[in-house]
Amino acid sequence: MARVQNQSNLQVTFSKQCDGIFKKATELSTLWGVDVVVVAFSASNKSYSCGHPSVESIVNRFLGENPLTDADAPNPIVISHQNANIDEINRKLNRLEISLEREKQYGEALQASRKEPPIEKLSSFDLKNLCKALEAVDE
């Protein structure tokens, strides 16, 4: 793996990677019901963070400023109900992501098929062949 030298490419790569990491952290939190925090620093030393339930609450708990008490512990029945709902939502999300990918591929195929030259740019030979093909369809 080599470091990206171009500054604009570096920023684009960082943004994509950061979005992917944040998405995975959110999925972990949703799937397993855990508290997650991710902090990433860009090449320009800007910090980006993502957390569930919030970055501040997790950091404060980590630093011992707001420890989790027994009263804050979730009810097991509520957790199992939430997990069932979360599983269903994740299945729907996976189906939608697959459907979106298919639609993107379909759109790309349509774009590729539209890249044929316009009629004004066809040669006389190609125009004659097109006329013959259209006449054959008309019959």
UniProtKB/TrEMBL annotation:
Residues 79-106 form a coiled coil. Residues 1-54 form the MADS-box domain. The keyword Coiled coil applies. Keywords: Coiled coil, DNA-binding, Nucleus, Transcription, Transcription regulation. It comes from the Eukaryota. SMART domains: MADS (SM00432). One of its GO terms (cellular component) is nucleus. Transmembrane segments: none annotated. The keyword Protease does not apply. One of its GO terms (molecular function) is RNA polymerase II cis-regulatory region sequence-specific DNA binding. PROSITE patterns: MADS_BOX_2. InterPro entries: TF_MADSbox (IPR002100), TF_MADSbox_sf (IPR036879). This is MADS-box domain-containing protein.
